[in-house]
Give the backbone structure.
Amino acid sequence: MKRLILFFLVICLSLLPAEIWAQETSDLAPVPVLQKESLAAELLDLNNIYRGQLTEYRAAEKEFVIARDHYLQLQTLAAINNVTEAAKKVLGLRNQVLITYLDLLRVNLIAAEGVEISAKELVLERLSGQKLRLQSQQTALSTATDREQINQLADTFTKQAPELTTVSQQTVSLLSLGKLQNVFDRLRSIREELLVPPDSQSSISLERSEREIDRLNQALEALFVVSWAELSKGLQADNVSSFYSNISKTLNPIYTNLTKLVAFLEERMR
Amino acid sequence: MNEKFNQNQTQFSVEEPLLEKSATIPSIELVTKKTRFPKWAWWLVIGLGLLLLVALATVWRNGAEQTEPQEEIVTLEEPRALSPLEQRLETAKQLLDNANPITQELPLPPVNMELRIDPSNR
């Protein structure tokens, strides 16, 4: 009996601290480190650079306007010197802003889902062409020292600006329609998984909801066909200004129908 | 001594009861029994003492920890885990929010395309 009690005591004493320490030494599981996709990281960097450059450009533009006013009023050598320097600075910053903007468009287009590869390649090529033009202008600007030289470079840029605007519009149009197409593709694949096998005994209400979803799908498909055809036509003709100016009007029915389809699928999943 | 002298001086010797003997108290013999404390009981006491010490140490330690300022723990109701299909639908919803054609991303930067030192002749 005595030995039994002793044994019990020894066991208790040896286990009690172990239990307390066990509570203290429970380690936290290591948090997994999420790795960012390279494109997303690049976009983030470009966005930050773009914002910084735009702020710098705005300040430089204000300085240039003041310097030009002085030059036009005073017409002195000092004023000419000041305005030339200010113009060189602002034109250089404008080029930088636009180059970064083109990079942003390029990376966004590469990362975009739901855009046909042929259309992507076409616009990417145009984007890189515009970037090369801006880069060569930047090089020319760095060597320019004379007021007339800067005026000439400014004129060359102004002549090229409409092309730059066109490429920007093409990219934005592709991205906007591509985003909606990507959502539609995803919803279509979800819909396919939700489909009721034809031989199964489904209720009338379920059949009715299936028909409604089908109808919406068909309407969306038709809208996409029309929109893509119009955009492709504009891309081939290198003119998407009409599509771009009506982008909200053209894409809004698609967006509304997609929102409806999401709601239907949500309801169907319940 | 009591037998020989009466301490009470207001009492006459005549009144003293004759041959009365004072009651004698029998001496009680205190017997101390030597009880032997068993050895196992000592062990039990030591064991319980140790247990008490450990318990006190634990309580003291916990008390010290509790005096440290603690952040208010907000227990939120855990949302229901979404099925893979529901997760996919949720992703599609988020993508649709970003695809609203009214909020146009990446417009041409607001830069002056016609900057020039001298007014153009056009």
User: Anything to note?
Assistant: The helical segments of chain A are 2-24, 38-74, 77-111, 117-143, 147-194, 204-236, 241-245, 247-269. Residues 181-195+204-269 of chain A form one domain.
